[in-house]
Structure formats: C-alpha cells, structure tokens
Design brief:
With 745 residues, the protein is an alpha/beta fold. Helices cover 41% and strands 19% of the residues. Helix 16 (440-448) packs parallel to helix 17 (482-492). The longest helix is centred in the N-terminal third of the chain and has 27 residues, at 191-217. It binds 1,4-dihydronicotinamide adenine dinucleotide and 3-(4-hydroxy-phenyl)pyruvic acid (ENO).
Length: 745
C-alpha cells in the first residue's frame, strides 16, 4: 500500500498512479472502492449510477470527485472502469460502454459471480475483450448504498481476479496492483473454480440465512421465536439483512454451482435428521467435533491473515552466552514425522487410540485437518495428546472439497498413499511453496500403486487421484529420501498381498516399530523388507523424542563443563545409536539403554561433560549419519585434534549445503575447517564467538547454538524465526536446564 503513498499536494490525474477511475454503480462496494482510492490519493474518481441521489451523496461525502455518464466523453478517457452494479445489470452496462471503450482502459467488475459476467461480456462483445479482467473482493457487509462506503473494507481481505486465456497480462498485473494498493491480498483464479468455491463459502450461507429467517417468521410461534432468539440466531442470520436484489441476481447467475453445493448440503442435513431421530449421539458428536475443529482452524488461518502483521522472518536472532551448564531431567518433544504417521495410522485402524507426546505443530495440524475432512473424529485432549476414533483402512469418506496440504511436506508424503488407497476420487492441493513443486518420487510411487493421476502440471500439486484396483507391488528404495521411505511403507498397507521393499534400511526404524504397534506385520530378509497389513488395530502410543533434539541436547551437555543431563523418552534406532556410539568413541560420557525386543534402544540416556577428541568418518558412515552432520561438525570443532569426514560430496545437496554453512561458521569463529575433494577436515579448538547466520534453517540454528555455547565470547545467530516456531519447546526446555541464551528482535 505504501508503494503509492503520496504527498499532501494533489497531483494532476496523469500523475496519479491509477489515473482516472470510473465506478459504475456507486453503492456500498463501488463506494468503498472509490473512497479507498481517493483517500490514498491514488486516482481521480468518477461515478455513474442509475440513482442520481447516490451520485450527489458520493460527491458531498467525498467518496468521488465527479459524477459522470456512460457517454463517449467520459468512457473514452478513463484509465480504469469498475462495474459495481448487481451482477444481472452488468450486461446492459457493458452494452452501453462498448462503443467508446478504449483498448488501453482496464475494464473490471466486483460482482459476486464470475461465469455470468464473462458470459455477459462475450454476448455483448462477441468474445471476451482482452482488457476486461473480472474481479471479486471477498469483503462486504449486509448493508448497501453509498452511505455504507468504508475505505478500509478491503484491507487484509482477499480479492480474487479471474483472468481468461486472452486477458492482457499487463492489465491483469495492473488489476492486482490496484487491489493491493487498497490493502487487499490478491489471488488469480479460474472462473469456474471461483463460482464453485463461492457457491459453498458465500452463496449457500446467504441462502440458508434467508430461508431460515423466512421459515421461522412464517411459523405459528414466530412472535416468541424472535422474542427469545439468542445470540446464535443473531450471528447465524446477520446476512439475511443483505440486499435482496443483489442476492436474487447471484442465485440466478450462479445456478449450477449453487445447486450442486445445496444438494450436497441437503444430504448432510438429512443424515443429521436421521441421527437425531435414531438418537445416534456418536454421529452427532463426530459431525460437531469435526466442524468445531474445522472452524477453529479456519479462524486461526483467517486471524493470521487479517490481524497478524506480516512476519519479518529474518529479524529474530538468538544470542548464546558462554559458561552455561546443563543439569536436570527432561522428556523431549515427540518426533514430528512419527506424529504424522501415528495419527494417520490411528485414523486407519479400527477402534480408539490414545496418542501422547504428539508434536502438534502446524504441519501435524494439517494432517489432522485432512483426516477430519474425511470423517475421522480426532479429539484434542491436551497440548500434546489426542484421542483418535479410527475408521478402518479404507474407511475414510470422500471430502467435500479438495484436501489442502497447505505447506506441510510431511503431510504430503504420509497422506498421498493413504488417499490413493481409498475407494474414492480425491483432489489434493496446497499453498506455495508446496504447490507447483515437481515431486516425481512420490507420484511415481502412486503410479506403482496403480493410481491414475491428473495434473495441471506433471508431478506437481494440485492433483486429482482416481483409485484403480490395487496391485501387489514391489519397490526399490535405493537412494530414497526418509520422506519417500515413509510414503513407501504407507503405500504397502494398501497392497493386495504382501508388499516388498528392496534396498530398504537394514536396521529396524522407529517408524517400523510404530507401524507394528498398529498390527502391521514387517519381516526382513537379506534382500527385502516385506510388509503385510490387513485390518489395523487401535493402540495407545507415546511418541518417542525427535532424534535431532536428543542428539543436540546430548552434544550440548557433553560440551559444557559441569553438565549432567537425563533424557527420559528415547527410542533410538540404529542411526541415533551410531551417533551416540561415535560420541562415546570421542570420549563422551554417555550411558545408553539396552536394545529391546523390537530392536530399538528404548528408555533413558544419561550424559555428563567430557573432553572430546577428534574422529574420522568413512563415506558410508557419513551417509548413515547425514541428518546429524551439522552436530558432528560442531563436535569436531570442539574436539582435540583434526577430524576427517569423508563423502561430503556424496550427500544429497541439502545435507551438503548444511555442512558447507557450518564450515563457513567454524571459520568465522576461528576454528579451521575446509572441504577438499569431498573430505571435510576440522581442526578442533576453542571457538571465538561472533555473528552467524543460519539462513532460516532450524537444524543449522541448533548446531550454531552449540557452537556458541562454549566459545570465548557471545555468539549471535541471525534468522532464527523458524527455529523458534518449530522447536519452541526445545528452546524453552534448554533454557530451563541452564542454557544461557536470549531472543532479540
Ligand atoms: N454487498 C457485498 O457484501 C458484496 C457485494 N459484491 C458485489 O458488488 C456489487 C455491488 O453490490 P453492493 O455495493 O453491495 O450493492 P449496492 O446496492 O449497495 O450498490 C449497487 C448500486 O448499483 C446501482 N445500479 C444498479 N443497476 C444499475 C445500472 N443498470 N446502472 C447503473 N447503476 C446501477 C444501484 O443504484 C446501486 O447504487 C454486486 O455485484 C455484488 O454482487 C461483492 C462483494 C461483496
Ligand atoms: O457480509 C458478509 O459476511 C459477506 O459474506 C460479505 C460478502 C458478500 C458477497 C460477496 O460476494 C462477498 C462478501
């Protein structure tokens, strides 16, 4: 908005950012739009209305500069013309404008339906003019008329722009700027999609409110109904005070999409009627729980957009002071990926599961919401525990709208195979940056499952998935990422017979133990892992600690003199065990639990301070420990002697990038580190402290915190917003245990 802030001096219209703007239909929306532009000094405002009184009011209240008419004199010289009449009046207005419309003029509208407006334009012009770009602000009120104009109406609200194939891109861009300039968040959308979405989100609620009030007003007891109406009635029916002409037009104009959503809703209402008639409390409870959590979720999203200021993600830094001591007993937050998997498994099993120590971060909430959208009742019992009422392996219900994975990559990898295994067609979408990102790995897996996929862009979300007969399948996991391995195991649950995964990790993982808890049978031979599921059974699970968190805490306690730390809820797999074993080989004082029958080292770990000495890693060891590499770089930075880590160049690029960032950080704090021919050498010493930048990566931020924890002076780490969001509990726990660090904005 500030990009267009002008000085006090009025500028001539050709110096104003949007020149001359004419509103046709100076009511509540047209008036709000005009006033928003005028108050910000962005345009010279003209208006036309079939009611002259509105124009006079518009001038006298300062909403517009000049009244106008639909004549050549006015139309030909406008830079922008905005149609803000009820939608069915637009065809006749377009016909009046057509003879004088200049090619450079941006013609747009604010109508609540878009298909009908495009149809009107095509009828009048013979085709959709390149300079007519339809639009629709998702902001309004139940009031009408120019006196209800509110120049702040569009601030932090969505505005949808619906260009068509022939639309002039320069004008599409100008329309985006126009809405942005008055504070709206602008998105482009396909006309048909707009009409379907709005039919559900806006048109149906208006229809229900009008019908409810009318039905009750005509009932025998109407006097008392209104007399004793509580707040709920008032909230639910506010929009029944909206303008009847406008809404009659909307339903005439968006007939098909409204009927489709009305039919779906009528079915759901009939289900509720049955539930009441049969005293089926469980069904009612299911609908109410899902609806409550869906609404709470939407409100949170909405509040983020309308209330929270744009976050400056790079402005938060963490400072760590030397001379901390870590002492105490701690139960670490549950692993994120295991939390996604456990909730999904509980949803797919039969019966009720209790999950504790669940990491309920934003991504996990996305998975929960998606499962709720498909009929699973998930109760939140506390900040980290859930009760999940499972529906069976193929018991999910088709969602009424596309499943939105927002920005959660883990939800994508866990849920796609589950959706592919259901007996219904489902569309999956997401927000940037998850949208339009090529993911051949997981979509190849979907194809191996026998799923038909329809994309707008190959192997990118959004996708439409159509189930076909599930085949038995065998898959190689050679070189697969951790996320793809999760997907592959989830996919195996839906195979017709036993599924085989070749080149799978040799040792049992935490995920496998979790799956076995829900009744999945997993067996290993030399060459493959076989997975057989059948029906899943509900169970109670405590999610074990996140591996990076416990590896981080252990290193911190090892390095800080006087430290003595007990971590209680660990379930270490082979990789985590290898990390701890390496630290012990370096001289660390660590007591590990024994291996249990399931193959995990489960229980508590005790860590005390000890001086560390240098270590060497072969290419294979480096690959095995790749996710923990930032912490190992820091261990090497403090260890006596030169550590050598082979195979850095063979790591996936994101792991290699982290190592390179750590090499730079070491050199900044005057610890000698370099990579030569894929081999990293770090000559341990005493870091000096200084200013480091983790570039928003929470794993690097944690490693850099340890790097600063025993250095000579203060270490400041920039760009720690993500760390504080993703690992908030960990950071708080570390402080409680004695780590001296503070947040600075
Ligand atoms: N009310 C709301 O909350 C929202 C409305 N919209 C859309 O905005 C448009 C306007 O709605 P409101 O401002 O609420 O209505 P309104 O009733 O306040 O204003 C409409 C104005 O258009 C004028 N008008 C009607 N036919 C005309 C014609 N043939 N030529 C010239 N002027 C004419 C009327 O005299 C009136 O002043 C509608 O298309 C509606 O779908 C979009 C978003 C929100
Ligand atoms: O008043 C309300 O709550 C609305 O729903 C406003 C509204 C009405 C119509 C639209 O096309 C967009 C927004």
């Amino acid at each position: 908005m500030d990009e267009f802030k002008l000085t006090e001096n009025r500028l001539k219209h050709d110096q104003l950012p949007f020149g001359k703007v004419m509103i046709v239909g100076l009511g509540m929306i047209g008036g709000s739009f005009a006033k928003a532009l005028k108050e910000r000094g962005l345009a010279e405002l003209y208006a036309v209305d079939r009611r002259e009184g509105e124009l006079a009011l518009g001038v006298s209240t300062g909403v517009i500069d000049y009244p106008a008419e639909l004549t050549e004199q006015f139309i030909a010289q406008m830079d922008v013309i905005v149609l803000a009449t009820p939608v069915r009046a637009m065809a006749s207005v377009l016909a009046e404008i057509k003879p004088y419309l200049a090619a450079h003029t941006l013609l747009t509208d604010v109508g609540s339906t878009k298909g009908s407006v495009v149809e009107a334009a095509v009828t009048v012009f013979g085709c959709m003019p390149a300079n007519f770009i339809p639009g629709h602000p998702i902001a309004g009120a139940e009031k009408s008329g120019v006196l209800a104009a509110n120049p702040q109406l569009f601030e932090k609200h969505m505005a949808i722009v619906t260009p068509v194939a022939d639309s002039d891109p320069v004008l599409v861009d100008r329309l985006h700027r126009l809405w942005r300039a008055i504070g709206a968040d602008v998105v482009s959308m396909d006309v048909d999609h707009h009409d379907h979405v709005l039919a559900s989100s806006s048109h149906l609620p208006h229809l229900l409110a009008y019908t409810l009030v009318d039905a009750l007003a005509n009932s025998d007891r109407s006097q008392d109904v209104f007399k004793f109406a509580a707040g709920g009635f008032r909230d639910f029916t506010r929009i029944a005070s909206s303008d009847p002409v406008m809404w009659r037009d909307v339903f005439l104009a968006n007939k098909d999409a409204t009927l489709a959503t009305l039919d779906q809703f009528t079915e759901r209402l009939a289900d509720m009627r049955d539930a009441i008639e049969q005293g089926d409390g469980a069904s009612m409870f299911g609908v109410f729980t899902r609806a409550k959590s869906a609404r709470d979720h939407f409100l949170r999203l909405l509040e983020q957009r309308t209330i929270a200021p744009q976050k400056d993600t790079s402005s938060v830094s963490l400072s760590v002071l030397p001379a901390s001591v870590i002492k105490g007993k701690v139960s670490l937050p549950g692993d994120k990926s295991l939390s996604h998997i456990a909730i999904t498994m509980a949803a797919l099993s039969r019966g009720v599961s209790h999950l504790t120590n669940v990491c309920l971060d934003g991504g996990v909430r996305v998975t929960i919401q998606a499962l709720r959208d498909m009929g699973v009742v998930i109760e939140t019992l506390s900040e980290s525990s859930l009760r999940v009422h499972g529906v069976g392996l193929r018991g999910l219900k088709a969602p009424i709208a596309p499943i939105n994975l927002h920005q959660s990559e883990l939800s994508l990898y866990v849920l796609l195979p589950v959706l592919a295994g259901q007996p219904f067609v489902v569309s999956v979408t997401a927000d940037d940056p998850l949208l339009n990102h090529v993911r051949a790995d997981v979509f190849d897996l979907m194809r191996a499952m026998g799923t038909e996929l329809e994309f707008e862009r190959k192997d990118c979300l959004p996708v439409k998935m159509c189930p076909t007969q599930q085949a038995a399948f065998s898959l190689s996991l050679e070189g697969a990422s951790q996320k793809l391995i999760v997907s592959a195991f989830m996919a195996c649950l839906f195979a017709e017979q036993e599924a085989n995964l070749t080149e799978a990790p040799e040792d049992v993982t935490q995920m496998e133990v979790l799956l076995q808890g829900f009744g999945v049978r997993i067996s290993r031979s030399k060459t493959a892992v076989s997975v057989a599921s059948g029906e899943l059974v509900s169970t109670d699970v405590e999610i074990v600690a996140d591996m990076y968190s416990c590896a981080w805490m252990a290193l911190l306690a090892s390095l800080l003199p006087g430290s003595e730390l007990v971590m209680t809820n660990l379930g270490l797999d082979a990789r985590a065990f290898a990390y701890f074993t390496l630290l012990k080989q370096m001289g660390a004082d660590i007591e590990l639990p024994d291996r249990n029958a399931a193959g995990l080292y489960e229980g508590q770990v005790l860590v005390r301070f000890a001086e560390l000495s240098a270590f060497q890693l072969s290419v294979d060891q480096t690959c095995q420990l790749r996710t923990l590499m930032p912490l190992l770089c820091v261990a090497a930075a403090y260890a006596k002697g030169e550590s050598r880590i082979e195979g850095i160049g063979q790591l996936p690029y994101y792991h290699e990038d982290r190592v390179l960032a750590l090499v730079e950080a070491c050199n900044l704090v005057q610890v000698n580190a370099q990579v030569e021919s894929g081999c990293l050498r770090i000559d341990g010493g005493v870091p000096q402290g200084g200013e480091l930048d983790c570039a928003g990566d929470q794993y690097l931020a944690l490693a850099m915190l340890v790097l600063g924890a025993r250095s000579k002076t203060v270490t400041q780490i920039e760009d720690c917003q993500t760390l504080l969001e993703e690992f908030s509990e960990l950071d708080a726990q570390a402080r409680q245990l004695g780590l001296h660090c503070s947040v600075a904005q």
